[in-house]
Amino acid sequence: MGNGKYVAYYRVSTDKQKKSGLGLEAQQEAVRCYLNGGNWKLVGKFTEAESGKRNDRPALAQALALCRIHNATLVVAKLDRLARNTQFLLTVVKESGDAGVVFCDLPSIPEGPTGKFLLTQMASVAELEAGLISQRTKAALQAAKARGKMLGCKNDNIAAHAIEGAKASASVRADKAEKRAEDILPIIAAIKAEGGESLRQIAAGLNERGIHTARGREWSAVQVQRLLMRLKRN
What we know:
The protein is globular, with a radius of gyration of 21 Å. A 4-stranded parallel beta sheet has the order 2-1-3-4, sandwiched between helices. The protein is built from 10 helices and 4 strands; from the N terminus they run E-H-H-E-H-E-H-H-E-H-H-H-H-H. The chain is α/β, with parallel strands linked by helices.
């Protein structure tokens, strides 16, 4: 099961159901059964009292942020507890991070990139086609390179495409770094509220919470400073 870290998300339709546990207990039991027997850690759990027709869900946003921070998998009891329309499901899959989303009622869909692909396929054939086009373009570039073809050749303009691809890749990495910085900011605020004002104390607080840098390493004062500077620039 992935890297063993999970964030559970439960949804009920009304506050009354949330307080009474009606509908909630069944979801919690489904998650327990799904995780049973594995070497796993539940790093967070969130319960939302909201209609399935609404897309603005604060608890879900917090759950997704925690997934990205810990590289954890979002686990949901049933697909209809999360989404009832294609576009919203695609958004959640995209925002879930590298570990993806799993549903207890769809055990055949795995975690990680493969599971995200299958969910995306279920949600939108158009999304699948866009991915295949990208894959074919990369394969064509690799094949041309393997044949020793000059990528700067005017006939096919591959070099220009390669430069644009590098720029796009850099932009994606930058966006991902900014998103991660925004996800971690509330946790830094909590550490400061507990008295951790210095960069060294903030780094220690992040490490104690099991939150790693984007490269999976422990935080240092310098890395915290860089993250705060990135947020200040934005």
